[in-house]
Amino acid sequence: MSAPAVQRPRRSSSRANGRRATTTPVLVRQLRNGVEESVHRGDIVEADASGELIRVLGDPDRVVTLRSTVKPFGAVALIEAGGIAAFDLQPAEIAILGSSHSGEDMHVRTLQGMFRKAGLSQTQLACGAEGMPLDALTAARLARDGERPSPIRHMCSGQHAASILLSRMRGWPLETYWQDDHPAQVDYRLAAARAFGTTPDRLPAAIDGCGVPTYAVTLREIARAYAFLANPAGIPATDPRSAVAPALTTIRDAMLENPEMVAGTRERIDTSLMKSLPERVVSKGGQEGLRAVAILADGRSEEARWGSAARRATGLVVKIDDGGGHERASWAATVEALAQADVLDGQPLRMLARYHRPTVLDPHGRTSAEAVAEFELAPVGELTR
To answer: What is the value of pTM for the model shown?
Structure first.
């Protein structure tokens, strides 16, 4: 079977008109005793489930690949197929389907439990193990004990498990579940397209780092989709996405209840954000400096209908240009953006201080440098006055 064809994403008008990276706003500065050593540029977009822009800094129509931010939406395929009943899936197991987990023992046990219930072997996983696990303490322990990490410790093994379980249900070949034209990947792409309110042919495909397809969309579309994730039941019944709402609500609630399954127990901003704001956000990072946050209007209450609450359910997306500054720049910019969007303040903001201004320590424990987010994320209405 041939490798998936890589399609060239549609370019936004600003890119087509020659937008250069140097014009992208500076979001984060790396400072050493007040001296600027480097900068990280990027874009920030907040929108509601209709796609109405709330706050913007940079280009909302910039096209990016979804990477791991697609995972909560792709998991819809297994949920809608009846996977919860078929495999007696518990909330923690549903949450890990949409995760980029740290490869800790708790994640391994959760995945192994699913495979046992399905009568499958974890050797079916084809996500590789390069650079895994993400958790440094777990990686050190495995190295000390002479144990090589297996694919189940890969941060994308939950995503892969969703396609393997779906293939088991449908009687599809297991060995090729990861290939672009496999029915499991066709269904995964269809689920994502439906959640984004589009069709599969309008989702240009590329190959993700773990070997399965990923798709290209604009930052505005990601923010819109994450606003939908924040309150699936809130969109009008006439919206085609409403058919996806029940499954997406199940996934959202599982992630809210199990933030440590979404990322990990140590130094993972997605988990830390969700624990500092319980029942308020679902945070999901992707490679190359991408992060999306579903911001709930009023806990997970489905009575907070779309557009009727004092604070609408919204989605907020941060994209760091250089990609390599994924941690310090993405961390600092995400926390600052949420603070300026009136989502974070007080004790929750203090709990996230290590992400808000990530520091570099010298051998004696002294702060030698820090990443400082410096930008103004004004509401769109203020920008047009």
So the answer is: 0.91
